[in-house]
Write a structure and sequence with these properties.
Blueprint lengths: L1 H22 L6 H4 L1 H17 L6 H20 L5 H21 L3 H25 L1 H8 L1 H5 L10 E3 L4 E3 L14 H18 L7 H13 L2 H17 L3 H19 L2 H13 L3 H6 L8 E3 L1 H15 L19 E3 L3 H31 L5 H14 L6 H5 L21
Helix pairs in contact: 1-5, 1-6, 3-5, 4-5, 6-7, 6-9, 6-10, 9-10, 9-11, 11-12, 11-17, 15-16, 16-17
Length: 417
């Protein structure tokens, strides 16, 4: 009875820590983006970390030493060094590390449950959104508008933690609990992959059908490509002969069908047009009539790579003032892959690649499945489409390999640590 009570308590704590880790990466509310909540959440998970008598691994100790050595180099190299942001980013790394150590292997179970119920909740909200947009926006943003300290981009963003309406480009799209439809599609895609691993290659499970339905409502180019092209190929690669024959017949039709969707073609065409504008946006000295402009994925890549060429080894860190920018307007970079190169250089890039590869190799080996390449490709597509360098959930994937057991045993899914 005592052991059961302890397990239930620890399980609830793990669920809460997973929820907070996801919440800090939703980027859809003042709670998600505020440094104050980062510190409060860090204090909470640190308390649990110490209560369970967990220890920092040598891996993270070395990571900390290297992080501060590199930042000393930035301090010496640049005329302006953002001490506050550099310190805050380290706190995010610390928060991500402690969270994933506390949650341990139960992360996959709790992450799957939270995303599944988040997807379920999003569907009726989304239905109301497309039936009566103004009413949905008013309902979802009620507390955000009424409580002063929750005010955040009230003109174009409505959020109640459980659901978000992004009013700029997502009026007819499902943003779920994330800041935009693409961000929601990223999380849904990850959950589908983890579900397939947990269920030993079962693609069309009840949960995945709900998640796929939610992906469809995002109208996300990235989400469609991952969920209806890459993931089916991953399932095909791990299937028996009978299922392979079936999937080989179905997959080409699915690929052809989604490639003909107007929004898929139009989005890709639009992104390519932005590649011609990046030089104008970074060099023109005039008022653009708006506060921010997105460089697009191709434009972001070209600007970031230009910065990367100037500092290829260690990059710029988070010293954004040293990177290419236009004094008249804030240029938003949306290519996470190239942003990673410009931010941390080749040194940080290879750290990310090795950390992620170890994660993918460990998780597929643990579940006795093949296809590290497909999971790597999924993450690559997500990173190219979205700047996730400083989101705590995605930072935690740098350390998640530390909590994956070397083999399956009876207590793996019931571990209280």
């Amino acid at each position: 009875m005592v052991n059961a009570d302890i397990y239930n308590k620890v399980n609830k704590e793990n669920l809460i820590v997973t929820f907070l880790l996801i919440l800090k990466s939703t980027q859809a509310s003042i709670i998600a983006i505020s440094p104050v909540t980062t510190i409060l959440f860090l204090i909470y998970v640190s308390f649990i970390f110490n209560k369970r008598k967990l220890k920092f691994s040598s891996y993270y100790v070395y990571f900390t030493i290297v992080y501060f050595i590199i930042n000393i180099f930035y301090f010496v190299s640049f005329d302006t060094y953002d001490l506050y942001l550099s310190g805050y980013v380290y706190l995010k790394f610390l928060y991500a590390y402690i969270s994933i150590r506390v949650i341990s292997f139960s992360f996959f179970k709790h992450f799957g449950n939270l995303v599944y119920y988040g997807a379920l909740i999003s569907l009726p909200f989304y239905l109301l959104q497309i039936i009566n947009y103004d009413l949905a926006f008013e309902i979802v943003s009620f507390f955000q508008r009424k409580i002063y300290f929750l005010n955040y981009r009230n003109d174009i963003l409505a959020n109640n933690i459980l659901f978000t309406i992004e009013g700029y480009a997502g009026q007819l799209r499902n943003s779920g609990f994330m800041w935009e439809p693409k961000g929601f599609a990223n999380i849904l895609s990850l959950s589908i992959v983890f579900n397939i691993l947990l269920s030993k290659n079962k693609f069309l499970s009840k949960r995945n059908i709900v998640l796929l339905t939610a992906v469809i409502t995002t109208y996300s180019t990235v989400g469609y490509f991952i969920c209806f092209v890459i993931i089916p190929l991953f399932v095909l690669y791990n299937s028996n002969l009978r299922n392979k024959v079936f999937l080989l017949i179905i997959i080409p039709f699915v690929i052809i069908s989604i490639s003909r969707l107007d929004f898929m073609y139009d989005k890709i065409k639009y992104e390519l047009t932005l590649s011609d504008e990046h030089e104008m946006l970074t060099s023109t000295t005039r008022d653009f009539g708006q506060e921010i402009i997105s460089l697009g994925r191709v434009g972001s890549f070209l600007v970031d790579i230009n910065d990367f060429y100037k500092r290829p080894i260690l990059g710029y860190g988070v010293n954004k003032n040293e990177r290419t920018q236009n004094p008249w307007i804030k240029l938003i970079r949306v290519n996470g892959f190239s942003d990673l190169l410009a931010t941390w250089g080749l040194f940080g890039f290879f750290f990310y690649v090795i950390s992620h590869f170890n994660f993918f190799k460990s998780i597929t080996s643990f579940f006795k499945m093949k296809g590290v390449f497909f999971i790597s490709f999924i993450f690559l597509v997500i990173y190219i489409a979205t700047t996730l360098t400083l989101h705590p959930l995605w930072m935690s994937f740098l350390f998640i390999n530390l909590i994956i057991p070397s083999n399956i045993n009876e207590d793996t899914f019931n571990s209280i640590s």
